[in-house]
Amino acid sequence: MSDFQPRYNWTREQALALFDLPFHELLFRAHAVHRENFDPGQVQVSTLLSIKTGACPEDCGYCPQSARYRTGLKAERLMPLEQVVEKAKVARDSGATRFCMGAAWRTPRDKDLPAVAEMVGAVKALGLETCATLGMLTAAQAEALKAAGLDYYNHNLDTSPEYYGEVITTRTYDDRLQTLAHVRDAGMKTCCGGIVGMGESRMDRAGLLHSLATLPAHPDSVPINRLVRVAGTPMAEEAELDALEFVRTIAVARIMMPRSMVRLSAGRESMSDELQALCFFAGANSIFHGEKLLTTGNPDTEADEQLFARLGIRAMPAASGSLSTTVHADITEAA
Ligand code: SF4
Q: How far apart are CA 21 and CA 9, in angstroms?
């Protein structure tokens, strides 16, 4: 079977073997997969807005929005519709094609959903793709969001099943898989990735990518975050992950999920242009831009434009993506 087709029967050992390849061999293979499935000169641009900030009851060890950690973050209630629309217009006018709305909830209350649904409809009416990340969803909530016009739902696996307990104790890996199943069943696209640099091993990084690549359908978007060490969180003192190991993670994600958008997300602010260029070569083809990435910094729009110009990269137009349509597990499992 060629490297270029999606497959769902990856083993953990195969994922690890990719990580263990000589760096240039890995990058060569990843770039070949990337070029076969995408225009390597295009990068998709998304903007992320926190529509409800902080005071989250969960205990994710990396997150300044958890109510359990003293990070100095000011909690804010659900943002009014007009303000969300205003921010979405600015995002659209500065080149974003997808607008993601994030709320720090364990799970949305049913009474919160109509307001979010209204936001989704209003943002979509601006010609933007819509994405939301609101915590765990029931099947009915996923269906309600789909009916409101939501295109993507973000819910990350964060890390490997084995390391997960070191990061979060208030919800399980299975809870996450369940929400992803509801999102898929409702007919929305999934955005699902993880965070690296949380003290996990290479085997855990391979385990995360293995979990993602063996889901019933590869996530349409795979955000790969590099831990932002926020003072006051339990992970504030983690050692920084080696930059080349981060590039390896991107490259392995590209090979294992050849038609997914692999996104550079949190942690990009601290990446040099050279590191980002290597990530794009390794198969990253999506970024978040804008002033804030939920509650941590993100390179400003001007810096991104300059980087794109230096690299000869163009922003991907809306509703474009893989050169081939998404293929699901049921027809490729045997491959
Ligand atoms: S990552 Fe999400 S669920 Fe976890 S503490 Fe932060 S806002 Fe809450």
A: 20
Q: Is residue 335 part of a domain?
A: no
Question: CB-based contacts of 317: which residues, under 8 Å, 6+ apart?
Answer: 97
Q: For residue 226, what are the β-bridge partners?
A: 196
Residue 323 maps to a domain = no
Chain Cα centroid distance, residue 180: 13
For the chain, how many structural domains are there in total? 1
Binding-site annotation: residue ranges = 56, 60, 63, 100, 131, 191, 263
> Measured from the CB, is residue 60 less than 6 Å from ligand 1?
yes
Q: What amino acid is encoded at 26 in this protein?
A: L
Question: In this structure, is residue 186 part of a structural domain?
Answer: yes
What CATH number does residue 102 fall under?
3.20.20.70
Q: Mean pLDDT by 10-residue block, N- to C-terminus, for the chain (335 residues)?
A: 78 97 97 94 86 87 88 84 89 82 90 92 91 94 94 95 95 95 95 95 97 95 92 88 97 97 87 94 88 53 82 75 38 27
Residue 171 belongs to some domain of the structure: yes
Report the separation in Å between the CA atom of 296 and the middle of ligand 1, taken as the mean of its atom positions: 13
Q: Which residues contact 61 (CB under 8 A, 6 or more apart)?
A: 166, 167, 168, 198, 233, 234, 235
Local structure of residue 56 (DSSP, 8 states): B
Which residues lie across from 49 on neighbouring strands?
101
| Numbered residues of the known binding site for [4Fe-4S] cluster | 56, 60, 63
Whole-model pTM: value is: 0.86
Rounded to the nearest angstrom, the distance between the alpha carbon of 193 and the centre of ligand 1 is 14
